[in-house]
Amino acid sequence: MQVSETLNEGLKREIKVVIPKEDLQSKLGERLEDAKGKVQLKGFRPGKVPVGHLRKMYGKSFMAEIVNEILNETPRSLLSERGEKSATQPEIDMTEDEKEAEKVLTGDADFEFSMKYEIIPPIEVKDFSSIKVTREVVDIPDEEVEEQVKRIAQSAVEYTSKKGKAENGDRVTMDYVGKVDGEAFEGGTDTDANLVLGSGQFIPGFEEQLVGKKAGDETQVKVTFPEDYGAAHLAGKEATFDVTIKDVASAGEIVIDDELATKLGIESAERLREVVREQIESQYGSMTRQKVKRQLLDALDEEYKFDSPSKLVDAEFNNIWAQISNDLQEAGKTFEDEDTTEDEAREEYMRLAERRVRLGLVLSEIGEQAGVTVSEQELQQAVMNQVRQYPGQEQQVFEFFKKNPDAVANLRAPIFEEKTVDHLLEQVSVTDKTVSKEELMADDEEETAEAKPAKKKAAPKKAAAKKDDAATDAEKPAKKAAPKKKKAEEASE
Fold this sequence. Notes:
Elements: E1 2-9, E2 12-19, H1 21-36, H2 51-82, E3 91-94, H3 98-105, E4 111-118, E5 132-137, H4 142-155, E6 159-161, E7 171-180, E8 183-196, E9 218-224, E10 238-251, H5 258-263, H6 269-303, H7 310-331, H8 342-369, H9 376-387, H10 394-403, H11 405-410, H12 412-427, E11 429-434, H13 437-441
Parallel strand pairs: 5-11
Antiparallel strand pairs: 1-2, 2-4, 3-4, 6-10, 7-8, 7-10, 9-10
């Protein structure tokens, strides 16, 4: 095998490989000798088929197998010999001329091909002891726990139908049809809908107009959708809702006791409060983790500056851009609505893509050198977490992962990354700082460049849809953990 480097420019490499026809014929001869003792042909005793006859019958197909084996094995062995890591699967170029290909298959010509690839640049893992991060923590007051427990108790309260007019705190059961300019709109109709008056669940101004109504009443509610309403085609528009009140019910007394806890599947009220506190701590803990992780990534971003493989960056940018475009389309907005232009947005998200790829490579190298591994048990747990996202369709999703090993392998990246972050947090200087929940939840101004346009809902029930959280720049480049579709059958896409 003759190997020559034809391109070495930045991270780009191109290698020309020539397999002399003599080597091909030698490999073919070995394959024919091996087949001689195995092939059974009519008119020949076992093991007595002439090699020349076998060559005539199977020569081309055997040579095609040899060529494929060379194409599969050579890139890997050459990269190993050169001490290089390819960012993506090397691109193979070989002749498309049928006559030349025929000569290779008959062993009358050398087999030539080239492999093009980008290398992952060498990354020298540095000392992390100089990196300092602040971990913001919230002391959760008993009042907040009690407030959350009361909300839970309120959601479990029993309602009793009553005669007379509805008041704030009462639950009304109703049918309604929403119209804009006299035409019913999608998502504006419902039957047997329950609404607790004063809960703020519906559009501002809606619930107030039902106070004083009683079962059997038919009324028309007039409202104006907020300017920032989730569905762009409804934002700021006046609407009417034809409402039929079917029932008015008053809430029972809110009691927080062991009986309530038992109804919720918890042994006691004391344990209920403990569970609620744990849930709140978990929520705040996730925010704390994200902020610490961002500080860590920002520090790594400053420490590690190098060119990233363009193919990885392009793939990551395409993923980001597809999501941005989809979000804008669903929201019915343009880049101008987001106070930017398409060119400016492309430039900004290309920088984000480059950062993600570079940090992904850095974390990968740090994790490998630290001996970070992902166990089979952790992968299986990740699969089960994905399965649970599709209630009632668990078996279908499980079968998807069972039939698609690559989908399971993709779950490894985020687990590996989080374990690498854990390793780093043991190496850097971490200072705890007690903050209020408002301070913890405050948006980081630096995240605005990574924030995705708001993904809006077209339902009329909520006052306004919230913006998606900022994209996490710690994601592995061009890797997705699992399908996020609503239907399990779509997972196979």
